[in-house]
Structure formats: structure tokens, C-alpha cells
Amino acid sequence: MTQPRLLLSWSSGKDSAWTLYRLQREGRYEVAGLVTTVNEAFERVAMHAVRVELLEAQARAADLPLWRVPLPHPCPNSEYERAMRALIERARAHGVTHMAFGDLFLQDIRAYRERQLAGTGITPVFPLWGADTAALAREMLGGGLQALLTCVDPRRLAPSFAGRPFDAGLLAALPPGADPCGENGEFHTFCHAGPMFREPIPVHAGAIVERDGFVYADVLPAAHAAPLSSRAGMKRVQS
Fold first, then answer.
1. What's the pLDDT at 227?
2. Is the peptide bond prior to 65 cis by the omega test (within 30 degrees of 0)?
3. Which of 28, 120, 144, 222, by CA, is between 20 and 30 Å from 200?
């Protein structure tokens, strides 16, 4: 029996990576590719600010095609929705019938995704939905997932969390009220190793910078020592 074809919304972070692992383990779908929105001006993953070369390394490690969705900077919502419509048309032309997301419990985000796909012939799937996030974080770490914090909201977490590994020490250090998976926007991550990949992606955290009210760690390939591009309009955070 032919498996339904599915695209995975891929942020480059731990939740989308663990969603991929769940999909691989369950085997209900043929994963046709990883879909990522990319800031065209800076060649980085939108919001996470991960370099495209590392995004491509993830796709190679997962042995899956990367479906880049280019976005202008700045990106009004009308442009975002235009890009999503083009993605949906392309997906349908490739026989895709489902799209998976790594959302955990934010009902408004899920509802927005469901509205976007309503009537398109593509059904949204939420493999991690409703999971206890403390238990899920421990499951990820116990399963061998490794990630770095790429973006921190300083209104929720101290800037010093940027660039830290997502590990048991980080979970213990989170302040009261912070979600262990960062689902409320406390932090975003880059996943560089885990059971969803054939091999780990050697990386390290580079410059810590601030832009638009967020603190970012520039994740670099292990052999790459260049600072964050000044084109990104960022300034260094003083230590």
C-alpha cells in the first residue's frame, strides 16, 4: 500500500527534528521533504537566524530534499501568505497530501495553520501536539538529540542563555514559568545531532548579538570561525 506523501515544516530546531524522528519511527507517511522559510536578504532561517549552509547540512544528514521558501526582508503577512500559496501549489503538483508541524500546545498557531491548509487538499498533522513539554524535553535528551539555543527572548530569559546547549543543565536553570521546550517563545534552537540524522553536524556557538529585541547566537560549522555577518543588522551583546 502506498504511503501518503508528507512535507515537514522545518525550523531547524529541536521540535521539528523530533517530529521528523516520530514520523520516521511510526512509518505512516513518506516524508517528501523539509520546508523552511528563509530570509532572502541574509540567507538565514527566518526567526532562528540559522545559516543556510547549516540548514542544508541538516537536510543531507536527514537524507531528505530541502524545500526552501524565500521571504523578503521585511516580510509583510501578505508576502508570507503568497509564498505559502506557491508552496501549496508545488506540493500538490508533487502528490503531497499532508503537512506536519512541530507545534506543542499553542492553539492559535495550530488554528492558523489549519486555516492556511483548509480546502487545499493538504491535511495538517501535529505529531507532538498535547505532549507534556517537560517530559518531551527529557525524551528528546534521552533519545540523543543535541541542540544549541540560537535565539532568546530577553523578556523571558537572560541573554546568557543564547548559545547554550539544550541539555539537562539548561532545563534545570530555566526560571519558573519558562516552558522546557520554549513553546511560548522563550528560546529557539538548532538541532545538530539525534536519531533523525545519519550523522551529527559539527558546530559551535559564535558571536552573541542583539537584533529587534531578541538575542541571537550565531551557530557556526565547526571549521568556520567567521563572526556573524554585519549585513544582518545586528550588534554584539556585551559580556
1. 43
2. no
3. 28
Amino acid at site 45: V
Indicate the helix (H) or strand (E) that contains 148: strand 146-152
The structural domains of the chain, with segments of one domain joined by +, span 5-125, 133-236
The predicted pLDDT at position 236 comes to 40
| Nine cell digits for residue 76 | 509583510
Q: What is the pLDDT of residues 33-58, one digit of tens each?
A: 999 999 887 889 977 889 999 999 99
Q: pLDDT exceeding 70 applies to what percent of the chain?
A: 93
Contacts of 18 (CB under 8 A, 6+ apart): 102, 128, 136, 139, 140, 143, 145, 194, 196
| CB count in 10 Å sphere of residue 194 | 21
Comparing CA positions, the residue from 88, 92, 115, 111 lying closest to residue 9 is 88
Annotation: CATH topology of 5-125: Rossmann fold (3.40.50)
Q: What is the DSSP letter of 51?
A: B
